[in-house]
Amino acid sequence: MILIAHRGNIDGKSELYENEPNYIDKALKKGYDVEIDVWVIEGNFYLGHDKPQYGITLEWLDKRKNELWIHCKNIEAMEWFNSLFDTYNYFWHQEDTLTLTSKGYIWAYPGKQPIKTSIAVMPEIYNDDISQCLGICSDYIQNYK
Predict the structure, then answer these.
(1) Which candidate, 5, 36, 87, 90, has a CA 20 to 30 Å from the CA of 79?
(2) Average pLDDT across the chain, whole number
(3) Residue 136: how many CB atoms within 10 A of its CB?
(4) pTM of the model
């Protein structure tokens, strides 16, 4: 089972720290993959959910690319990652039932399970049946260990 810390959260939502680079690194060091929100503005990279908050470098992304699930937050981010299609695992979604990541994973919106071989996002919200999932993305990911 792939365990993904939503924005770096592992034991509950922390709006103060989520998407902050050091917070993400803490979740990675505990062995979790991490879903991050990435913005690209005028060629610069930022993390942040509702707005670009934390500047990061391409080197920062590249060092962690095998454990990151990149949610593109603006069109420029999607265009940039799409130009390097097989290098990063990225996706775009809003409230779609599901989307495919660039690596071919099914990313399923909360409340839509069971979907075979999908990544269940926040299954605790609707008590989703995760028996057929390939992975889980949650603010409480340590509960699924």
Answers:
(1) 5
(2) 96
(3) 24
(4) 0.96
